[in-house]
Amino acid sequence: MSRYDAIIAGGGHNGLVTACYLAKAGLKTLVVEKNDWVGGAAVSRSLYPGFTYSNCSYVSSLLRPEIMRELELPKHGLQIIPYEGGAVFTQDGGYLAMYRDHDANRREFARYSQRDAENYDRYSRDVLRHCRFIRPLLLRTPPDPTSFRPRDLSELAYIGKKLFDMPEEDIYAMIRFWTMSISDFLDEYFETPVIKAYLAVSSIIGTALGPMSPGSAYVLLHHYMGDVDGNIGAWGYARGGMGSISKALMASFVAAGGEVRTGSGVAEILISNGRATGVALANGDTFEAPMVISNMDVKRTFLKHVDEKHLPPDFVKSVKRFKIRGSSGKVNIALDGLPTFPALPPDSPCIRGDLHFTDSIERLEHAYDDWKAGRYSRDPFLDMMIPTTTDPTMTPPGKHFMSCFVQYAPPKIEGRDWTDADRDAFGQTVLNQIEQYAPGFKNLVLHAEVRTPRELEAEVGLTEGNIFQGELTFDQLLFNRPVPGYAQYRSPIDGLWMCGSSTHPGGGVMGAPGRNAAAEILRSLKKPAIMGDAYAVL
Length: 538
What we know:
The protein is an alpha/beta fold and 538 residues long. The chain has a domain at 2-42 and 62-79 and 240-322 and 469-537: FAD/NAD(P)-binding domain (3-Layer(bba) Sandwich), CATH 3.50.50.60. The chain has helices at residues 13-24, 65-70, 102-112, 114-134, 150-164, 168-179, 182-187, 193-200, 216-224, 243-255, 298-304, 313-321, 361-372, 420-437, 453-460, 512-524, 533-537, and strands at residues 2-3, 6-9, 29-33, 45-48, 51-53, 80-82, 85-89, 95-99, 227-228, 231-232, 236-238, 259-262, 266-272, 275-281, 286-288, 292-294, 328-335, 354-356, 381-385, 400-407, 445-451, 496-498. A 5-stranded parallel β-sheet has the order 12-3-2-16-22, covered by helices on one side. Strands 1-15-14-13 form a 4-stranded mixed β-sheet, with no helix packed on it. It has a 4-stranded antiparallel β-sheet with strand order 19-20-17-21. Strand 13 and strand 14 form a beta hairpin. Helix 1 packs parallel to helix 10. The longest helix is centred in the first third of the chain and has 21 residues, at 114-134. The relative contact order is 0.19. Mean pLDDT is 92; it is low at 533-538.
């Protein structure tokens, strides 16, 4: 039986981030992954000859620059290419363009409403103010508000000082923002339906909320907290697909002496006398370690891979209450050429960004109504991108790859499991919608991979297909994520830690949960680390 200092259960990007830091600190570290590849949702796969798909996550912004720098990811081949903007196509044949440049967006808004153009500055300022409060918390362990330990008191004082440094009206505005719907928030700035629809989409992506649901405004903020090349809120493509992020992380891990075993997942986390002692894999292999760090979501970890007799009953109840509701699907398409969208001017840079068809808050809400009824949306919201307009390495010359993220798709269809027929009909709904705005599109389709919550759970290990490993609602943030009393990457079992997106600060290809978990583990071992100032103050 092989023995290690630490075993990472699950080779998703957060697990790889944790593994890199532990290996660089000198721990003999093993990553075990059920698939034949690592990366979890951040993968690049060849599913059609000559084409590379980003077949789950599809765009990068949230990956923390501290992680890229400390783990030397560019040295290991990672390159993020910013994209230039995007567009919403309207049902009357028009479009709203969006650009990386703030002033260009302002001029575009003025085509629809001078009032909205003038309010865009105020909107951007207010959202950035909320981002400035939250961003420093991403790489800090949440304090336990019931604890009197010096570290928890220090962290509570840090948050309190940030609050008291803000003007009184900003504190009120922030509390309102965290609890209100994105629809109500945008109504305070804009009057044009298509402008509000474009700005609202980040508040619903991956979340079992509609734009009129309280709490959806914070989800928008979560997506705005990333950056590319120092540009806050910018998004980009990972050259070679999203798997390039995981490939660079694995290269950094192996360079530090780490080991990876793929092809068989964890069947059971082994526990003896209240301590984690290793893992037993589905293929029968067993590995020992005094620490096991789970990259799986909190429900999968404690309800499927830990015997309940080792856990406090109240903890189990809290885990069962944790909201992980799938709401998304994905359609990946190999194209014989670049589709034509008649609404866009020739050679518009918008085609190189995110393209949407849902041109009002009401259409978004109606799509959510279908989800609530247990149906996939008949008029779905698509976050559609063609990364090969910027990164030609993913396809043969003249061909293109299209990624379509879809809201909404429920984890079950009217209470029953998805069937292959349901999946195929869901995929056709997406293709038919694109055809409406790009005539002749379906004739370009060489291959399509359709992924419902069923496939996301079975292949990626995302419970109910939830891409954030738990919803980003106010009751599941900071010291409540995932369970009150266990928000510091620890569990009730000594030596069993968590590092996935079920923990603070949540989902997206961010890496912050993985880095934060590594900092806590190394601190508990009194080991030096390569983290910067954030490690020192945690």
